[in-house]
Amino acid sequence: YYGMRGEGVLLLVALAVRLLLLWLGSHEWLGQRIEVSTPVGQWKRIREGIALVENGLSPYSGDIFHETPLILVLFRVLYSLGEWAVGGLFIAVDFLIALGLAKIAVLYQKEQIATQAAERSSYGKGVESVLVKEDPSLPLFMAAVYLLNPYSIITCGGFSTISLTTLAIIWAIWMKLNGSDVLSALGVAAAAYLSLYPVMLVFPLVLMTHKKSGFFAAVQFTVLAGFWSGLLFAISYYITGSWDFVQEVHGVILTVPDLTPNVGLFWYFFTEAFEHFRVFFLCVFQINAFIYVLPLTVRFSNHPMFLTYILISLMTLFKSYPCVGDLTLPLALLPLWSHTFRYLRYTLVVLILFLVASALGPVLWYLWIHAGSANANFFFAMTVAYAMAQVGQWLKSIIRYLSNFVCQELEQCFCFSRRPSL
After folding, report:
1. Contacts of the segment 377-384: beta carbons below 8 A, 24+ positions apart
2. pTM
3. Which pLDDT score is estimated for 417?
C-alpha cells in the first residue's frame, strides 16, 4: 500500500481538499480566523499593501502591512492574475514541503543507520530493539502527516504566509542533509528574513556542517548565511528605496505593537500589563524565546538534527505572532524518531489538550467577540491549554530521545522490562 498506490491516494486526497477550499473561497473566511492568520501573515493585509503600492503609497508608512518587500512583489504579480493563482501557489508550497519532508526522511534515515554502524561497538548488549531500522514507508508517512494535518489544510485555505517560512526551513534542512551548504544557507537566511525567529536554526546547521566537514566548513557556512541575508535585505532596499520595511516587518515581530488576539501568549499579557513596564517584560518575553538555544546546543551538539526539531518547537511556542500553521512542521518531523516512541508517556493527556484547545478555542472566541457572554480570560485559557500541549510534546520528545540514547549505551536498562504506557 505504501508504494505508488499509496502515494497516489495521498496526493489526490490532499489536493482535492485544498482545491475544494479554494473553490469555496475559504481564504475570505479562514483568512479572518485568528488561529490561522496573524498581523504579520494575513492575506487581507497583503491585499491592502498591494493596493497602497498601486496607488503610489508606501505600504510601510502605516501600521497595516508587515510582510517583506519580496513577498509583496511576489503576491502583487500573482494577484494580478487572480486569486486562483494565489491559491495555486499555496497549494504548490504545501506539496513542496511534503516533498522536502519525504527527502529528509530518506537522507536522515540513511545517515542514522550509517552512524549506528560506525558506533555499534560502543553500544551495550541487547539493544537491537531500540536501534534505527530502515523503514521504506517513513517518507510517505511524513508527507501524509503534513498534507493531511487539519492545521496545514486550513493554513493553506486561509492563504497564511507561514507556509512560505516552513518551506524555507524545510529547504535548509533538506539541502544540508544533501550536502549543499550554499543552498542550505540560502534556506535558513530566507526563513529568518521572513519570520526572524528561524535565525536560531543557524546553530544546528553549523553543527551538522562541523560534524561532516570540520571547523572551517562550519565558518564558511556561517559566512554564507550572512551573505544571503545581506543580499535579501539589499534587494529589499532596492525595491522599496528605504529601510522602513525593517521596522515594519522585523521590528513589529520584536516590539509587538499589534495586540490582536492569537494562539500565543504575548497578546493577553501585554494587554493587561502597565505601559510603564512594557519594555521590561517585552525584553523578558523575547529573551525567553532565544535563551534556550545555547544550553540546548551544548547538550545536543552530537545530535544536530534533533536539536533542529527542538528549536523549531521552541519557535512555535514562544514567537510573538504564532498561528496553528507553525505547529505543522514539528508534528511532521516527529516520525523521524519513531524508534523512540516506546518511551512515550502521557500521550493521551497531550492529545486531549490539543483537541480541547482546537475545539473550544473557536467556541470561546465566538462567545467573547460575537455573543458577548464571555470575556478574554476564557479564550486565553484555551491558548494556555494549547501552549501546555506544546510544552508537553516538547518535553516528551526530549525525554524519550535521551531514554533511547541511554539504552543504547547500557547492557540492561529498565526500559526493556517496563511496559510502554500512555
Report:
1. 379/261, 380/268, 382/356, 382/357, 383/262, 383/263, 383/264, 383/265, 383/268, 383/357, 384/265
2. 0.92
3. 41
